[in-house]
Design a protein that fits this description.
The protein is α/β, with parallel strands linked by helices. Helices cover 38% and strands 12% of the residues. The chain has a seven-stranded mixed beta sheet, sandwiched between helices. The chain starts with a strand and ends in a 6-residue tail after the last helix.
Amino acid sequence: MADAKVIPFDDDRSRTGAQRAARRRAPAARRPGPPEEPAEVTALPGAEPGPRGDEGEGAGAQERRPGGWEERISGGLAFLRRRLTGEYEVDDFGFDAELTDQVLMSLLRPVYEKYFRVEVRGVENIPDEGGALIVANHSGTLPLDGLMMQVAVHDHHPRGRHLRLLAADLVFMLPVVNELARKAGHTLACAQDAEALLRRDELVGVMPEGFKGIGKPFGERYKLQRFGRGGFVSTALRAGKPIVPCSIVGAEEIYPMLGNAKTLARLLGVPYFPLTPTFPWLGPLGALPLPTKWTIQFGEPIPTDGYPPEAAEDPMLMFDLTDQVREQIQHTLYKLLVQRRSVFF
């Protein structure tokens, strides 16, 4: 099997992105025959015409969804041919846009739409082009919130943009998970990688709470943990890209963490070993997350391009901006919690 082509940093990404988009939009080959009458375009049952705003999918997601069975089969065969012949592209971080669009998003989408029934708000605050740093709260014992945020950006943004998540070292130490994370566009949570992606006009997602947020007890749900030393602010300042706060409600309750088996966690080499009402008491069945109702809200972007280059070295400025982002996320979390009717509906 041929090797995939690697895109260097200095390659023309807009050109290759356009080629991929054109290839995805190319119709399947047809046998010669009489010209067909133009088909009337009708909406799917329950779908609203035009781009969707705070509810549902954006226009870009509708275009990416395959049409009839013939088109799906044709597209699937073409996809398999490209995978077998190596006619696909990955970037320097291992991101495989075609595999993400065709396979990974298709696997995550039913969980997003049917299981967690995610409602997205404020997607218009994500820029149509250029880089931006999306900063979100982290929770849920397992990092499903990052994956759901990735689907939200991909499916609801009018341009169908990809979110490049910054992940902890542990993600890239796990077999299989490591490869899937790279293919999905995730990269190591370090300032160098984040700045490189931002300068390439990518959307970068970061959850500054890290393991402190995802592994906190259920009694501290929706209380933001410390946002580190403000490294994400320094990265955004250096790249001159806006910061978009993101608040996620619903992830805290999927695995109510009532305890932490610290001794077992040390033996396994993991940050914590959660004890929930169902895990490990029910075995593999206890690992099934509770079907909570989620809301993801993207706040107004905080610009950073007006600061001088040396601003990234100003500790007071970084502290102020970090606190501003954290307070905005926390305030939105409280507001969403007051508005929601139930954990599950």
